[in-house]
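Re-running the complex after MR caught last week's input typo. The corrected sequence lines follow. Everything else is unchanged.
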Amino acid sequence: MNSDHIIGKSVPRKEGRDKVTGKSEYVDDMVLPNMLFGATVRSQIPRGHIRKITFGPGVAWDEFVIVSAKDIPGKNCIALIGDDQPCLATDVVNHPEEPILLLAHPDRYLLPKAVQAVSIEYHPLPGVFSIEESERRTEIVWGKDNIFKTYMIEKGDVHGIWAKADYIVEGEYSTGAQEQLYIENNGMIAAFDAAQGITVWGSLQCPYYIHKALMALCNLPAEKVRVVQMETGGAFGGKEEYPSMIAAHAALLAIKAGRPVKIIYDRLEDMAATTKRHPSRTRHRTAVSRDGKILGGEIDFTIDGGAYLTLSPVVLSRGAIHAGGPYYWPSVRIRAQAVATNAPPHGAFRGFGAPQSLFAMERHMDHIAHTVGLSPIEIRRRNFLQPGQATTTEQVVREPIDLGKLLDRALQVSEYHSKKQRFSGENQSGDVRKGMGIAAFLHGAGFTGSGERYLNSVVGVEGCADGNVRVLVSSTEFGQGTKTVLSQIAAEALGLPYENVSTAQPDTLEVPNSGPTVASRTVMVVGKLVQSAALGIAQTLIASGQLHEGYSPDEFRTACQQHVATHGQFRCWSRYEAPSGIFWDDEKYRGEAYAAFAWAVYIAEVTVDLTTYSVSVDDFVALQEVGKVLHPVLARGQIIGGVAQGIGFSLYEKVIWQNGRMQNGQMTNYIMPTSSDLPPIRVFFEELGNVHGAYGAKGIGELPMDGPAPAIVNAVEDALGVRFDSVPLLPEDIMDGLNKSGLAASSPQNNASSVGGDR
Amino acid sequence: MTDPRQSQAKSGISFTVNGEPREVRAYPMERLLDVLRHQLELTGAKEGCGEGECGSCAVLMDGALVNSCLVPVLQAEGASIVTIEGLAAGEQLHGLQEAFLECGGAQCGICTPGMILAACHLLNGKSDPTLEEIREGLSGNLCRCTGYSQILEAVQEAAQRRKSA
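Corrected-run output:
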């Protein structure tokens, strides 16, 4: 066996060379012969009945392929959790970007004008545009009551705690929609042929989600639907479910046209029509003892799902389970609901509900600290979950995690105490105020509860004719390093050099369904399956006598070549099996919510300018326990990138809505951080290992999205002594807050306030 | 996407691309980006926003860094253009490409061609930039994956290596 470990080494990214030389093929780079270009005619109103469609003058309509709902061979829906979202609206529209018609033409420049020339008359209905309006139920826009899904998590006796409380601390917190803003817009190409069925190539995260949606839509059997992932220019959850819609549209046009059709969204269409992070509102009511111990509480967590169900139940679930943070709650009642509005459906975005509920929890911890008269440090220390204690879903912490120690290290590397001391002096005068903020949190990796069992993922590893090894998964690469790390895992398991192993491009003709590439599950769950399928390859060769234990890479190559020459295709499979002793109750929402949690303490240092009210993050410490780091460069890249998105979520990225439609769908007016806006993001790992993950790994992709918003807003409060409970927190919000609190810029000497002390 | 053919007829435009003289027939107001991608099949330049905000379509034109989505091809007449495809010398990667690979400067890769060309432009003007100068120099190129740190490190690394080479 090769004694050099590949795990833990920063080996070169598999597809890296193509990316730095411009050779990688993204969907818009692909051209098929006779290809048409497709475009989407969308609703112009948020809600109403379609009365009449007119194809206006000035367009040679006979040159266009035109598709409406009546051209759909199968069911008019984008099959996901529910079937409520039509592929093309027929009678009713429920949001202002709802697709109604599709057009295709060989000349891409003629499409925008044609889309404009279609006029649609409506009988408008009143719309619902906020959580509060939806809850009022004056208008019912979905189901019987505007509610997509509710969950209740109950632990202990909440009823009895209020009388025992020394303090009852209440708060309401909200977070806005956030656009994923991958730099590559969504796009798909479809081709149809009666014998082979439909093939789509595209920018996507989940090949088998699209496969399922196209089977239902086109009324085709599994073998006549093929989905191929092209190189994908960022996703972050934004290419989890909406690509099924675009693939469906391209497929319908291709079927009708009898020619391949490419649909590429421009930035405006991508921003306006595709999914965003769910806006949220969280209410906390917490009973606390004199010494700062949480006795129990109630948490009401509500998200705005937009017009259709899509993934809202799952986002809601993760948000609800994370709502209690990394703290011990002797009793708690968490009520969660996802409500309908007439906006385009909100969807998956890194963190998936957890950044929303954890923002509330970590802001609320600072309020509890202020109320009780403890520091933000001490209030957390006194309530951290300890090994042996149970989470809000009664999941017992079995690993030896010491959150106090994580906190100590984060305080030390951020120089928290000395900076706090310095700022309390400096904040007495001048035009700026500085502050420090802490967020402690956890993030569960993999699907929630019984989710992984339902997914029932399968992974293949192939011994190839040339003696090399290929990993077969539907898990996609879109920046995280999927192909690199899965190849590392297989190479390590087989004792082969990294160069001898590759990971196949996801193509449903070739690869099994290893589940969607979401939920920080790829390395931990899929990686573990790759490890065992790879071992199957070695065991088969050894059992057949073609290889002996302790083989060299050359011996492996020869044996593998011989095996393929003798027996033909040589593949081993591994299917997910739930770890024993894992219990989850879907009814009561109780039990082992996740196979592993990653744990983190983030600390932000900010400066607030009292003239412009702008906030700059000056330093950011991201410390986390993630099991084992399999590839240091990629892991650090995940954390820094996630923190950067979290800083955008906190301070820059605001979706401006008008009647359910995004008004600022451009990069000029929806602002994400540039290289000049970000502080040094300092990443620190602790590694405890994880029995359920490949080589001890836990998931890390989503974790870094959870901490920045609360850490930064806590720091702003620390700087100004004024409470802010919403993100994004823009300069105008800070000005408002200071004005309302009477601490306007005219009297900066009054602004300084060291909140909660520092101990 | 506006139709570039509204006013004038196609005309011949000559320029140098990655060291080779090229001639295309194009509408004067066609975007340089489209001519590169569709006619010359140089798809390394990407369209991220179509309005000069993201920099993923950046190329070098007579040594200047331009967003090719904002350049009418007419303007490129006689110019010397360098795209990402022209940076490596055969199989030998440019120092910036190597450093991006090693330091984790490329994740999803979509901003990478523009980012590397912006870095190239920066280092051509300043062989030993400070971190602040690199931040400033790349601030016209958006990256959603990396949070930029590993890109900045890659540029520093490439500058260092070039100095000690």
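None of the earlier attempt is carried over here. The helical segments of chain B are 32-39, 95-103, 112-125, 131-137, 149-164. The beta strands of chain B are 11-17, 20-26, 58-61, 64-67, 80-82.
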